[in-house]
Write a structure and sequence with these properties.
Helix content: 40-55%
Number of helices: 9
Number of strands: 8
Structural class: alpha+beta
Shape: rod-shaped
Strand order of the largest sheet: 1-2-3-4
Order of helices and strands: HHHHHHHHHEEEEEEEE
Radius of gyration: 38 Å
């Protein structure tokens, strides 16, 4: 059929098709499909995918897309991020969505920080930590072996842990390696505080003492309490002579 005659015929068929009822249109399509070969069916399949599976994130204005995304919960948003790179990029750029997700977790959100990726990362880290807490995987545990009796006193600072025990000793540990840095003989410790050079201990013998880590020597001892010294602090070095400590 010549092109001109074909176009006229197609126009006539199209006009007649539009006058049919919905069931008649379906029947007509079924009949045409039954008459089609592999080439026509492949063409139909390719075009149907484009017509039926429209990417609304690509077609809608960005402002409207952001508005619609705000109605989705964070779990659904993360699933949508897996659809394709474009969806991940668009969803990852919606600041209000991720700020809202962080607020739902109880975070204090600075609205002036308009960085969607920042808030998405905050949300992801928070959810990861919450899952780790639920599964009891949030913390690593290890044992520090060294005392021969009960440990009464603990004090942690800057990766170091000081322990005071009923075995009349105090030890300073590197938490990362588990190694004992110092171990000195003391009284029974009810409280401990330390810095790089000195250790302050409160004891069940009603005294407070200050010790030097490097030598294990007792620098000073304070008496006067009628019960165990359960808290102790070392004053700043500039406030008093180098060897002087005070119980608080």
């Amino acid at each position: 059929m010549e092109r001109k005659r074909f176009e006229a015929w197609l126009q006539s068929v199209s006009t007649s098709f539009l006058t049919l009822t919905e069931p008649q249109k379906n029947e007509t399509l079924d009949h045409l499909i039954s008459l089609s070969g592999a080439v026509q069916l492949r063409h139909l399949s390719n075009n149907l995918e484009t017509l039926l599976k429209r990417d609304f994130l690509r077609l809608l204005p960005l402002e409207l897309t952001f508005y619609l995304l705000r109605w989705l919960d964070p779990k659904t948003l993360l699933t949508c991020c897996l659809v394709c790179k474009r969806w991940n990029k668009v969803i990852g750029a919606c600041t209000e969505v991720w700020q809202g997700a962080c607020k739902a977790l109880g975070w204090q959100v600075d609205d002036s920080l308009q960085d969607a990726m920042h808030w998405k990362k905050v949300y992801m880290k928070a959810k990861l930590r919450m899952r780790q807490l639920e599964e009891r995987e949030a913390f690593e545990t290890s044992s520090l072996i060294g005392h021969s009796a009960r440990v009464y006193a603990l004090y942690y600072k800057d990766g170091l842990l000081c322990t005071g025990s009923d075995d009349l000793s105090a030890k300073l540990w590197d938490v990362c390696t588990g190694q004992c840095i110092y171990g000195i003989q003391t009284h029974t410790c009810a409280a401990v505080k330390f810095d790089e050079q000195k250790l302050v201990t409160g004891s069940f013998d009603n005294t407070i003492a200050c010790w030097e880590w490097s030598t294990g020597a007792k620098i000073q001892q304070f008496r006067g309490h009628t019960g165990a010294g359960r808290t102790a602090n070392k004053v700043r070095r500039a406030a008093m002579p180098d060897s002087c400590c005070r119980a608080v």
